[in-house]
Design brief:
heterodimer, A: 297 residues, alpha+beta, Alpha-Beta Plaits, Single alpha-helices involved in coiled-coils or other helix-helix interfaces, three-stranded antiparallel β-sheet, 27% helix, 18% strand, B: 220 residues, 4% strand, elongated
């Protein structure tokens, strides 16, 4: 979904410079999700479907409070549920609102070969432009969070836009607006980090969660969605949130050294063959050609 | 009819039978499409190739199917040519004299059979890279169906597929250069099937002896 009022700072599969890079002073926006006050009501799931006009799909009941096993191409916002038994035998219901993390260094964008199919705005939002998507699914491989999902009918990939259309008009994302407990916040990255750290400190000092902390993984350059977790040392408990997410090394190798090596080798090879022809020419001299009709033996 | 060639009545040698030529051109046509669309996916500098070939979505949709055609073609090549592509003791000395070959001093080269060791390298290189491209291509065809806990398959595929493709491009460039520009008569042989006796004698002396030894010498 293209947002005319948002400027672009990164473009997938793009040769040359990017129009919005270094062109505008803008806050990096951020969504804060406090898992400790999420009650799993799924208002955010409904708000997401409502605002984005996503078609209704079947839910999957698996004896938990989770709507379906994972996000879908038309279901971008899913609260993951985990019943966690602590060492003392007591139970915890861990709820984590899962959606695109809007990485500062997006693996999807790095892997995408289609010009302009994935963009990152100067405010940090990573947005898919389905009109330019060719359906290769490289973004699925580039993403360390398993977020991009393919629409099997159109072969185009979809995910959470962080309501870039709303944000471009100065509104908060639909999920934020719907949250009844106030566990969702939206603002600048600095403000959200500050708020998150304060809440984590409160949890550590007053609520007997000594491991409480903020999830803003450095492996992807930080994320546009940060979590407050009761136990930041075990993010995997929260629906498999990766402890140290990073763009797969093979994607980095492919888009980095292999690309340059390959391009240099291809151009060098072509030049080498041309030079060889200039220096040595064809194998048979013109006065004793071997391809003449009949062929003298 | 032996697939390794025979002397034709008009005094030329049949080098490639019809099914060999057809297989070659199915492989060549499909490979060219795969290379051009593959280059489009490889680099933003080449993405325009996808547009002239019908658009990015169409290129993405057809690339795997054409890949299947290419895979079948190289497997057919394997069944036709594998026996003749086996490396022989003489091949080592051929590679030892590669400098003469590069300088077009073919008379100083050890006698090559129907295929010289460079052609054998091309064959085995394309075959092995083709199999790698097929296997990794299957994964890249349907990444959305590879389960999250098997994602390492995707990670391997996105690296191996372009790496193997680059190797085939190196082979492809040399192959086209040799057959179209360097060895005059080679291109005609894969189109019409026959070569002159002089061509066979110069570039494939051992094969020439084998063929002409079996058959009556041509009348001039």
């Amino acid at each position: 979904m293209s947002q005319a009022t948002l400027r672009v700072q990164k473009i997938s599969g793009h040769s040359g410079s990017v129009p919005g890079q270094d062109a505008q002073r803008e806050f990096t926006v951020c969504k804060l999700i406090d898992t400790t006050t999420c009650i799993g009501c799924k208002a955010c799931e409904v708000a997401c479907m409502e605002w984005n006009d996503l078609p209704f799909g079947e839910t999957v009941f698996d004896n938990t409070y989770q709507t379906m096993p994972e996000t879908r191409w038309n279901y971008w916002n899913l609260i993951l549920f985990n019943e966690h038994e602590k060492e003392d035998g007591s139970l915890m219901w861990l709820m984590r609102k899962n959606q695109c993390m809007h990485c500062a260094e997006p693996g999807c964008l790095a892997a995408c070969p289609a010009d302009g199919a994935i963009v990152q705005y100067t405010n940090g939002i990573v947005d898919f432009q389905q009109a330019n998507c060719i359906g290769c699914g490289y973004c699925i491989t580039g993403c360390p969070f398993d977020i991009p999902k393919m629409n099997p009918k159109t072969n185009r990939v979809f995910k959470c836009t962080l309501c870039s259309d709303r944000v471009s008009e100065g509104l908060e994302p639909a999920c934020i607006k719907s949250c009844p407990t106030g566990c969702l916040h939206f603002g600048s990255k600095d403000d959200m980090k500050d708020l998150a750290e304060k809440r984590a400190k409160q949890l550590r000092e007053h609520y007997n969660f000594p491991q409480a902390g903020v999830y803003d993984p450095a492996g992807v350059g930080g994320t546009g969605v940060v979590y407050v977790l009761h136990d930041a040392t075990k993010p995997e408990l929260y629906g498999g949130l990766p402890a140290d997410p990073h763009v797969p090394w093979s994607v980095k190798l492919w888009k980095g050294p292999l690309k340059w090596l390959g391009n240099v080798a291809m151009v060098g090879g072509l030049i080498g063959l041309c030079v060889h022809y200039l220096r040595y020419g064809p194998k048979d001299r013109d006065d004793e050609r071997v391809d003449s009709e009949g062929g003298k033996s | 009819m032996s697939s390794s060639g025979h002397v034709l009545p008009q005094g030329r040698i049949l080098r490639y039978a019809f099914r060999e030529r057809l297989t070659h051109w199915i492989a060549a046509g499909s490979y060219t499409y795969l290379m051009l669309t593959g280059l489009a996916f490889w680099s933003p500098w080449c993405f325009w190739l996808a547009f002239i070939l019908g658009g990015g979505q169409v290129s993405r949709m057809l690339h795997p199917w054409v890949g299947l055609i290419f895979t079948v073609a190289i497997l057919k090549m394997y069944s036709m040519w594998a026996a003749q592509m086996r490396s022989t003791a003489a091949d080592k000395s051929w590679w030892g004299s590669i400098g003469h070959y590069i300088r077009n001093e073919d008379e100083k080269m050890p006698a090559a059979g129907r295929y010289n060791p460079g052609q054998k390298l091309l064959f085995w290189g394309f075959l092995s890279c083709g199999i790698l491209l097929f296997l990794t291509g299957i994964i890249l065809w349907i990444p959305e169906y590879i389960p999250w806990n098997l994602r390492f398959l995707r990670y391997v595929a996105v690296l191996i597929h372009p790496a193997a493709a680059l190797l085939t491009i190196a082979l492809f460039l040399v192959h086209v250069y040799m057959s179209v520009f360097a060895e005059r008569g080679a291109f005609g042989s894969i189109v019409r099937g026959d070569v002159s006796l002089a061509f066979a004698k110069r570039y494939h002396p051992a094969w020439y002896e084998e063929i002409t030894g079996q058959t009556a010498p041509p009348k001039k």
